[in-house]
Design goal:
Length: 747
């Protein structure tokens, strides 16, 4: 099998080491996974193999059970890999009759017309001359599946040699040239984990404990939390049902290594005949080999830290349409205020092109933008057009931000929030603010003099003249006017809230596993979306409305539309909780941040994962796209803000300064400044344009798939503003570039 190469590198044939990528189950992925098969297998063996099948009933049952389970869960890539390993034809699968078949064939089945029936499958796998008992489908519980996963640890060698093998490899790596040492040191952590788990699974508890105590301190500091979890797995019984273990066993740890460094490692293991480590590399590691100079320790550390190692270069080479959609043609009428502004301050129309040049939505079609019809978007209503006119008027008065012109900051402190403030959001026009609380409530406030009112009752609405010009004003009941409204419905803490772009609806996600849609006209719950089985940590409306996304503890993000009860898409691939979700400005992509310390970008059209970003050393809690759609900023518990180029799939910047978890990131409306809010009670402003302008385009063409990050955080930091004692939960730039921040006072 060949290691996947990127850039100008050629594929290298590696017969000793398996480098298939880990399985990412994505719904609606219709790719032909079987297209890689180039040779027909011989009867009872794998491609090119003459070794006959074992014929054991247990192997037959296990193979069929695994095939059925993988096919049932649409893991087509895993099905194809297992099929090839077993030497079965590409178009074999019709497993409907597998449960009832008896496998009575005396010889391996033959390929006729490209397909096999269930009996032929059984005979191909077993080569048994006697009839066997019916094969039972795997039960629905998780436990048998865990047993299948763990059983791979049973075929191991002398436990006393594990420490010798690991020490020998460590000694070898410590003696190689400095330029190779940093890259080869990446293998320490995955080897350490798998060797420890093998010892525990085979009941060598004392040996495993000694192995852990001797070598756990040598691992990188950013794996400390994972090692704490691992230290609790001291008996075979502890391993069953453990999520962290299953993550590590079912996904291959990705290592990006230069060709020269890899050849050193391969030569050493072959000379020493170190089969124990060789088997682990073959089974559990994905070696992403690149041509060129080996990476430095700082370059490796910048990209490392996730549960599954680095993101593969091949995973970040799909075409991404990051440009903005063409804006509808709406004429901007001049009112008296505009005419006065024209007389006093000059021509305001000259400010409008500046809005386009600074990364806002453009009237010209962006060459990198998706087509207008790539995904269905809601049609503009008259109220939407009026709102866009208001947006354009506000944009003409927008303050141009920069190093010498920082924004004013207005902080909203939630006092006496004994319910526990857990989520905050502002409307796009900054007229409303909503808070989610740990007591299951949601409260909406008006931050303008205009109070919140409900629509009149049906009996009162019948008395209204529907043809009058002010009908929208007449339908509102003045008797219900108040500064805030309280929304009850959830049965657990509210962790995510999001206003719709037209300010008519509010989404809230909760620990109770539901997402609720609230009407801001009647202040009642319209729909409860039930798809997640566990807490839903975040939800967000699309910039164009209608669509929204949710993510939670079940590791799956779901794409919904407001008029359907079931999700349109399910984005599966993360190895831990999805903690934050964000729509791209053109609504064609969704970004998800996770506790597995990775960020993934998903294509709304087909559900594919088109980007995997690694580099954070802790769970990710904040994401923000730049207004022009080209860049993404992320923040995590490690206190770092990382900047990503979406088109090239590369990390392009690192902003250090926060001392605690970053919970909110927001680009200014013109994209000049990035604001970050943290649990360290500070708001920091960064010079985003300088960070992007300092990039050298030559870096993006490097076949190694990485660039050298500048340590220029202090140069890019424009200001740090400290609250009295309020963690910053949310940031929002108004249409005129005033920065609004919010958080609960924590005395």
């Amino acid at each position: 099998m060949a290691a996947i190469q990127g850039g100008m590198a050629e594929a290298v044939e590696i017969k000793d080491i398996k480098t298939e990528p880990p399985v990412d189950a994505v719904v609606n992925n219709n790719a032909n996974d079987g297209s890689v098969l180039s040779a027909s297998p011989g009867p009872g063996g794998s491609v090119g193999s003459t070794k006959p099948a074992t014929g054991a009933l247990e192997e037959k049952q296990t193979l069929l059970a695994i095939l059925q389970f993988l096919k049932k869960n649409q893991l087509s890539e895993s099905v194809d890999i297992l099929r090839r390993e077993a030497g079965l034809p590409q178009d074999l699968f019709d497993l409907k009759g597998a449960d009832a078949s008896s496998g009575s064939g005396g010889t391996p089945g033959t390929v006729e017309g490209g397909g096999l029936d269930a009996n032929s499958l059984l005979s191909r796998v077993t080569s048994s001359s006697a009839a066997q008992a019916p094969v039972k489908a795997p039960p629905a519980e998780d436990q048998p599946d865990v047993s299948v996963v763990l059983s791979a640890y049973s075929q191991q060698g002398d436990p006393a040699l594990y420490e010798v093998y690991y020490s020998g490899l460590k000694k070898f790596i410590e003696t190689v040239l400095d330029c190779h040492r940093a890259e080869l040191s990446q293998v320490f952590y995955p080897l350490f984990v798998h060797m420890y788990l093998e010892l525990v699974y085979n009941n060598h508890e004392n040996v495993a404990k000694a192995f852990f105590e001797k070598f756990s301190g040598d691992q990188e500091c950013y794996y400390r939390e994972d090692l704490q979890v691992l230290s609790g797995l001291t008996k075979k019984e502890h391993m069953r049902g453990n999520e962290t273990l299953l993550d590590f066993r079912t996904s291959k740890f990705v290592l990006r290594i230069s060709r020269d460094s890899y050849q050193l490692l391969k030569r050493h293991l072959q000379e020493r005949q170190n089969n124990q480590i060789w088997n682990i590399i073959q089974e559990h590691l994905y070696i992403d080999i690149f041509d060129g100079m080996p990476r430095s320790k700082s370059q490796i550390d910048a990209m490392s830290g996730s549960l599954a190692g680095e993101g593969k270069r091949e995973a970040n080479k799909a075409k991404v349409y990051y440009g903005l959609l063409k804006e509808p043609e709406i004429e901007l009428p001049l009112d008296d205020e505009d005419e006065e502004a024209e007389n006093e301050e000059g021509k305001p129309k000259k400010k409008k092109p500046k809005k386009d040049s600074t990364g806002s939505k453009s009237k010209k079609q962006d060459p990198n933008a998706p087509s207008q019809t790539r995904i269905p978007l809601p049609e503009l209503k008259d109220s939407d057009k009026l709102d866009k006119i208001m947006y354009m008027k506000e944009a003409t008065k927008r303050i141009r931000l920069g190093r010498d012109n920082l924004p004013s900051i207005c902080f909203y402190s939630f006092l006496n929030a004994y319910q526990g403030l857990t989520a905050v959001d502002f409307t796009d026009d900054s007229s409303l603010i909503a808070g989610g609380f740990a007591d299951s409530s949601v409260r909406v406030w008006s931050v303008t003099p205009k109070k919140l009112r409900k629509v009149k009752s049906a009996a009162d609405l019948n008395l209204i003249d529907k043809e009058s010009d002010d009908v929208l004003e007449r339908i509102m009941d003045e008797k219900t006017a108040s500064e805030s409204k309280l929304l009850y419905g959830h049965s657990g803490p509210v962790y995510g809230i999001s206003f719709s772009p037209d300010r008519n609806y509010l989404l809230s996600s909760s620990e109770d596993g539901t997402v609720r849609l609230w009407s801001l006209q009647t202040f009642t719950c319209l729909v409860g979306y039930k798809g997640h089985n566990y807490p839903v940590w975040d939800t967000q409306f699309s910039p164009h409305g209608y669509y929204f996304v949710s993510g939670g503890h079940d590791r799956v993000a779901r794409l919904w539309v407001t008029d359907h009860h079931q999700p349109l898409r399910m984005f599966a691939g993360h190895l831990a909780d999805i903690t934050c979700t964000r729509f791209h400005p053109n609504s064609n992509y969704v970004a998800t941040g996770s506790s597995d310390r990775t960020i993934r970008l998903w294509d709304v059209l087909n559900g594919n994962c088109v980007r995997i970003f690694t580099g954070h050393k802790g769970p990710i809690h904040a994401l923000s796209f730049s207004p022009n759609g080209k860049f993404l900023a992320s923040g995590a518990t490690d206190g770092r803000v990382l900047l990503w180029d979406i088109g090239h799939g590369l990390m392009i910047g690192e902003l250090k300064g926060h001392t605690d978890t970053i919970y909110s990131l927001k680009f200014s409306r013109d994209g000049e400044i990035l604001a970050s809010g943290s649990m360290d009670n500070t708001v920091r402003l960064w010079d985003a344009m300088k960070a992007f302008d300092d990039l050298e385009t030559d870096d993006f063409t490097a076949t190694t798939g990485h660039i050298h990050l500048q340590d220029n955080s202090q140069e890019l930091l424009l200001g740090c503003y400290t609250t009295k004692s309020s963690p910053v939960l949310h940031l929002h730039f108004t249409r005129r570039n005033l920065l609004l921040a919010a958080g609960g006072y924590n005395p």
